[in-house]
Design brief:
Elements (H helix, E strand, L loop, with lengths): L2 E5 L2 E5 L15 H16 L5 E5 L4 E3 L4 H6 L4 H16 L5 E5 L2 E3 L1 H7 L3 E5 L5 E2 L2 H4 L5 H10 L2 H10 L2 E2 L1 H6 L5 E3 L4 H10 L7 H10 L1 H7 L14
Parallel strand pairs: 2-3, 3-5, 4-6, 5-7, 6-8, 7-10
Antiparallel strand pairs: 1-2, 8-9
Length: 235
């Protein structure tokens, strides 16, 4: 399960098990989502300057939706997706600077989680950002579509959503998906350094600024998922 570490005033949220396997996919199981929210509660409860870096270890940053759980619980798909949306709304309005330190693959809902951070630093030599829904014959929810369109350059959103292109590090920076691509051993280092420079902005004012910036995306993410905007079982 996810866990926290700390480097000075920078809180580091690891998305996978501390001693997990190299290929741990860090998928969005309901218990995993609850654990992430609980850890974010811990970070918010700490007083003083702060910033957040989200990362993982191994091959994946996160591979997104837990499709095994979904296929076994199709009757709960709408409430599950609404719960997934809460990760995005939480990150979009988090009251401190947030940086995704993407050390591996970020696919589907996992790529969207990275997109919901303020900034993204990716590995230059390995790891893809990919929205594979079009190739899986899966629609985007209204909220997910708004998130991608609101946070990425329009033509990048079109390409990413309609072709399922896999963006490597340099391509992700060129496309406006990531802010920087660095060597593998510098991904977390660079993210922590950037986060440390912004710890003084932590607070309600920053959260309010973010809420204003992302007002349209947040409104879309708060639309309850239903048959009209997602029908996974019929795909």
């Amino acid at each position: 399960m996810p866990y926290l570490e700390r480097n000075g005033d920078v809180h580091i949220l690891f998305l996978g098990d501390q001693d997990g396997p190299e290929n741990n996919e860090n998928r969005f199981h309901p218990d995993w989502i609850d654990r992430v929210h609980a850890l974010l509660d811990e970070v918010e409860a700490v007083e003083g300057p702060a910033a957040l870096v989200t990362t993982a270890t191994g091959k994946f940053f996160t591979n997104g939706l837990d499709t095994d759980w979904l296929f076994a619980n199709l009757d709960k798909i709408t409430s599950y997706l609404d719960r997934v949306h809460t990760l995005y709304t939480r990150m979009l309005t988090f009251p401190m600077t947030t940086i995704a330190s993407v050390q591996g693959h970020a696919f589907g809902a996992g790529a969207m989680l990275a997109t919901a951070h303020d900034f993204r630093i990716v590995r230059a030599d390995r790891g893809f950002y990919c929205l594979p829904e079009v190739n899986l014959n899966m629609p985007f929810t209204v909220g997910m579509s708004a998130l991608v369109n609101g946070r990425l350059p329009k033509q990048t959103a079109v390409e990413a959503m309609t072709t399922g292109r896999r963006y490597g590090g340099a391509d992700a920076v060129a496309a406006g998906i990531a802010d920087a691509a660095v060597d593998a051993d510098q991904v977390l280092v660079a993210a922590v350094e950037r986060a440390a420079a912004s710890t003084s902005t932590r607070g309600k004012n920053l959260a309010g600024i973010k809420a204003g910036i992302h007002a349209d995306v947040l409104a879309a993410l708060n639309i309850p998922t239903g048959e009209s905007n997602f029908s996974f079982g019929n795909q």
